[in-house]
Amino acid sequence: MPLKASYGESSRHVTGGEISRQTVMKKIRKTNGLKVSAPKKKGTVKILHVDADEDHIALQDGSTTVVPIITIHEGVQKLCKGRNQCMNAHHFCSYGKTTENLWLEVAEWIYEAYEVDNLEVIYIHGDGANWIKKGLEILPESRLVLDKYHINKAIMNCTGAQPEYRKVLWQVLKNADREEFKRIIRNMGKETRSENGLKKIKEFRRYVLNNWEGIEIHKTGKCGGSSAEAHVSHVLSARMDRSADGVESGRAKIHV
User: Fold this and answer.
1) Cβ of 233: how many Cβ atoms within 10 Å?
2) How many Å from the N-terminal Cα to the C-terminal Cα in the chain?
3) Is 102 within the bounds of a domain?
């Protein structure tokens, strides 16, 4: 069911703001039987992109909760200089759902919206978290793409005390040179002078090697780029009523 307004906006439009956005949200979550309407005519594409990320949302009681967002789209088109748009984007937000149920909902949408037999590959873009990799088990012909934003974020975190390694690490990962990566990491480990620095290097090594296929695919596959961070900031944050003016309605549909 497409939702184009935030919970706060819904309350203002329907009740004049007399009901809190939290109450609106709870009532929606308790509603059963809602089903996402698929297009009347199935699309025929060879490649689909699925961007997966999450955001930490502050609740009214002072606690926080993690809300994943998954976006299905057909690739990114350039509108003008410095501005791109995902084609036929559909957003799925998970609140109170299991990871498996969220991915099953995404899979159901794909099967209903597209001629799956014509799909050659589904690229799942994300940071390599376990909940994201769950999608590889459920979506047909899917492959993980470790997005460049999170690769760069991991490099910056690892090289806080050794910034001279940033460019060389980025280049070696861009080339998907596994052995050279291991050699550089060994050198960094030998040169670091703090336990915390060594811990970060080991964590970075484990992170990269555990997601190597998602790095290598940038060199061997036409996987395109990820817009996951943009989806979080412009769609999910607005959906939770941080800034209702940030919702881009009309083109992108949000399903909860």
Assistant:
1) 15
2) 8
3) yes
Which DSSP symbol is given to 61?
T
**Residue-by-residue pLDDT tens, the chain, 256 positions:** 333 344 455 455 445 565 564 555 444 444 444 445 566 789 999 999 999 998 877 778 888 888 899 999 998 887 777 677 889 999 998 777 899 999 999 999 999 999 999 999 999 999 999 999 999 999 999 999 999 999 999 999 999 999 999 999 999 999 999 999 999 999 999 999 999 999 999 999 999 999 999 999 998 767 876 554 454 444 555 554 443 333 333 344 545 5
Total domain count, the chain: 2
Q: How far is CA 115 from CA 51, 111, 169, 224, in A?
A: 20, 7, 40, 21
Q: Please name the residue that has the structure tokens 């809602």.
A: 34
> Is the domain of 39 the same as that of 98?
yes
Q: What's the rounded Cα separation, in Å, for the pair 44 and 46?
A: 7
Contact between 177 and 210 under an 8 Å Cβ cutoff? The reply is no
Backbone angles phi, psi at 184, to 5 degrees: -65, -40
Residue 67 lies in a domain: yes
Q: Are residues 172 and 243 in the same domain?
A: no
In terms of domains, do 177 and 241 share one? no
In a domain, 221, yes or no: no
- pTM, entire model: 0.75
Q: Name the residue among 180, 139, 155 with its Cα closest to residue 47.
A: 139
What is the Cα–Cα distance from 211 to 216, expressed in whole angstroms? 9
Residue 228 maps to a domain: no
Which residues on neighbouring strands pair with residue 5, listed in sequence order?
A: none
Containing domain of residue 170, as a range? 151-214
Are the CB atoms for 22 and 60 separated by under 8 Å?
A: yes
